[in-house]
Amino acid sequence: MVSENTEAISNFITYLSVKQNKPINNILINPLVKRFFESKGVDNYSPIEENYEISDLDFKKVEISYFYDYIFNDINKNNEKIETPVKYCITIDKQNCLKKCEKTGILYDDFWLYKQPIFYFIYIDVKDIFSALRG
């Protein structure tokens, strides 16, 4: 069954729904995300809220205000230094992730502002999700 999420900003994101996502987050997603960002030397990161996740296809259709509201909204100045927290989106769409991390083997794509990454797509294979569900 494919359910509908009318609150989502994207027309292209596929949502996978499970009764309890805590095991998937604890066993699969959180460790993978942590390992990925540690390999990149990033310690200040957070996910985009579920309804505001986008895909590569959305870049042609989404209003520019989206980026200010959901990606750039945490940029601030602290002790004369600009801090740019990194946002990420988990995707099961492999086409969103054309790069492979040399240290972890994780598929991803990134978007930079000047010389600093600000947003990542991180790919998780749906087979790994089912493996985590089966324990």
Report on this structure:
The protein is α/β, with parallel strands linked by helices and 135 residues long. The protein has one domain. Helix content is 25%, strand content 24%. It is built from 3 helices and 7 strands. The protein has a 5-stranded mixed β-sheet with strand order 1-4-7-6-5, covered by helices on one side. Strands 2-3 form a two-stranded antiparallel ribbon. Helix 1 packs across helix 3. The radius of gyration is 15 Å and the shape is globular. The two termini are 23 Å apart. 15% of the residues are buried. The mean pLDDT is 80.
Instruction: Give the helix tally.
Output: 3
Biggest β-sheet strands, sense, barrel: 5 strands, mixed
Query: What share of the residues does DSSP label as strand, in percent?
Result: 15-25%
How much helix, percentage-wise, in residues?
A: 25-40%
| End-to-end separation | 23 Å
Provide a short characterization of the protein structure.
The chain contains 3 helices and 7 strands; from the N terminus they run αβαββββββα. The protein is α/β, with parallel strands linked by helices and 135 residues long.
Provide the descriptors you would attach to this structure in a database record:
single chain, 135 residues, alpha/beta, 5-stranded mixed beta sheet, two-stranded antiparallel sheet, 3 helices, 25% helix, 24% strand
List the helices and strands and how they pair.
Elements: H1 22-40, E1 45-47, H2 65-70, E2 76-78, E3 81-83, E4 86-91, E5 99-100, E6 107-113, E7 116-123, H3 126-134
Parallel strand pairs: 1-4, 4-7
Antiparallel strand pairs: 2-3, 5-6, 6-7
Helix pairs in contact: 1-3
